[in-house]
Amino acid sequence: KTRRVLLENIGAFGAIQIINYILPLITFPYLVRVLGPEKYGLVSFALSFVTYFMIFVAYGFEYSATREISLSRNNKDRLSEIFSSVMLSKILLIFLSLVLMSVIVFSFERFRQEWLLYLMTFGMVIGYASIPNWFFQGVENVKFITVSHFVGQLVYVIAVFVFIRSQSDYYLVQFFNSVGLLVCGVILIFSALRFYGIRLFIPSRHQIVQQMKEGRDFFILSLLTQSYNVSNILILGLILGEIYAGYYYAAERIVNMVLSLLSLPTTRAFFPYMSKVAKESKERGLKIVWKLSFVVGLIAFFISVILFVSADLIVKALLGDEYSNSVNILRFLSFLVFVKGLSGVFITQGLLAFGLEHIVVRIMLVVTIFHITLAITFTKFFSIFGNVISVCITEVLLAFLSIKNFIRITSISFSNNEKK
Known about the structure:
The protein has helices at residues 2-58, 61-71, 76-105, 109-112, 115-129, 133-138, 143-163, 173-196, 205-239, 242-280, 282-309, 311-318, 326-352, 357-419. It is an all-alpha fold. The longest helix is centred in the last third of the chain and has 63 residues, at 357-419.
């Protein structure tokens, strides 16, 4: 039964990624052509800026709450307590984020000129916070997530083609994205209430504080990880201008769509399962991690080769001739499908599932500081390809550190068991 549920969840997450892959693939070529590199770069810059607030409201609950839900799935009162505490915590974090963003936007001329764009993009923070994916991942029933994501993405796609007709409509892109996320969130909240008997109530201060403590390490980890991921767009936009951010983001978007199609079904579906296995039998958990790393690594390697060889055709087909500068960027970044595929397995299914988030936090702290320093330096001296090279170097470092620490810790675990 456990194996069947796991396979169903992998299939459901695979369906989500196909939805997230195909529907944006419809709008992606349209948007890059209608908006052009400069406006598309501006939209991506605003999204990178607002991503920090999305991390803030998520607060690591996608891991901490998923784990708690997974361990309490047969206790309806406990499920209601977790659900209410997490959702109220997110509402409080949204208000704090809005205040902080407003202060930043209206304090700097560069941001103030595009205040409407940032306000529309902030809607994604609200939409993202409303989606309780963590609940359905915890109960290992992600079919609801599949349906809601499809509806939300469909709303976004229709709105893009109906309302975005010229460069002057650039500020509406993330607004419609926000609406799609909010639709997805409403469907999932209703499903949790209707099909799982969740009761919403105002939790105590202690319950909210407890949830914040549980998610603290995961929040720090998410902040470090996303700071590293979104810093490239911000650095390019601030140092070289939005048009370079547009060239980079367009190529990165292609790689991320492919990478998410490969990694997310295994990452999200396996995490609740691996958390239970790691608690019951470390030896069994270690074997699963190594098998999974081999399968993901092999598939990711072939995908990287295909992306590298066909980069020119992919860019022309999806982005158009105006983005010819993105071809070589895509060739460099294609290597990351293999590297990030491996590091993702060892970090999420290895270190995090085994309850070693404090080690991952230390790794990401080192990697984030290293990358931001390297990216700023390389971008100043070598322009956009300096930034791209810094990304590749950092991803190799992250994979090396995650695998090295996993091997070291598992070796110690086996050694202690032998002594016992």
